[in-house]
UniProtKB/TrEMBL annotation:
Gene3D superfamilies: C2 domain
GO cellular component, one term: plasma membrane
Protein's name in the database: DOCK1 protein
Domain C2 DOCK-type intervals: 1-116
Lineage: Eukaryota, Metazoa, Chordata, Craniata, Vertebrata
PROSITE patterns, per the entry: C2_DOCK (PS51650)
GO terms for biological process, alphabetical: cell migration; myoblast fusion; small GTPase-mediated signal transduction
Length: 220
């Protein structure tokens, strides 16, 4: 289990290094790294690393380069994302005359991840709604796509999602363009909470209504 502060997640990656084992602890410490794999916690679209198994690329080369983030962060980290680049014997020139890092094609390394967060989502559609102000032209589509987001992911961000919906109504109170879409989204959320699977979130919704709801222009 690794705990990463929320403000650091966007610039954090995990690096896995491999050394030879010996019968001597002191010799283990002196052994150089012979292979390395890495994975970023955030994806380019702003969502987090997907839960589940990841087949990581193993790199070999100079041990100092294997520990130098600037030498490998621009390279592919997962096999299934860049299969065409990972042909047998392929290598990547990292900078100028520096030695290349080569893909270790004979070895494989898999990890399984589970992200636990109430602030970072793995769903790009939900992220689009929560950050709707950054791309207002996509708002209609993001509201419609909310109904396709996994219920568990929406429930996890219940208060943030409700805040976003009521903010949309407040900031567009002079037009009814989004009214029906927001209303449908609210009905979708209430139905989720009414589902037996999410019944324990009833108290969260009640608390939101009593303590957090303050969208006066959206009251009706």
């Amino acid at each position: 289990q690794i705990a990463v502060p929320i403000e650091d997640v966007h610039r954090t990656h995990l690096r896995f290094t491999f050394r030879h084992r010996s019968s001597s602890d002191s010799k283990d410490r002196s052994e150089r790294i012979f292979s390395m794999a890495f994975v970023r916690l955030m994806r380019p679209d702003g969502t987090t690393l997907r839960d589940g198994e990841h087949d990581l690329v193993l790199y070999k080369g100079d041990s100092k380069k294997l520990e130098d983030a600037s030498a490998y962060l621009s390279l592919p980290s997962e096999r299934n994302l860049s299969e065409s680049k990972l042909l047998s014997g392929s290598s990547f020139r990292v900078s100028g005359a520096a030695p290349a890092l080569a893909v270790s094609t004979r070895d494989s390394f898999q990890i399984s991840t589970l992200i636990c967060s109430t602030k970072l989502t793995q769903n790009v559609n939900l992220l689009g709604l929560l950050k709707w102000r950054s791309k207002p032209s996509l708002l209609c589509g993001n509201l419609q796509k909310l109904m396709n987001v996994d219920g568990g992911e929406v429930i996890k961000f219940l208060q943030d999602t409700l805040d976003a919906l009521f903010s949309i109504m407040m900031e567009h109170s002079e037009t009814d363009v989004y009214d029906t879409l927001v209303f449908d989204a609210l009905v979708f959320i209430v139905r989720l909470v009414a589902d037996r699977k999410f019944q324990h979130f009833n108290t969260v919704l009640e608390a939101y209504i009593r303590q957090h709801f303050s969208a006066t222009l959206a009251y009706k």
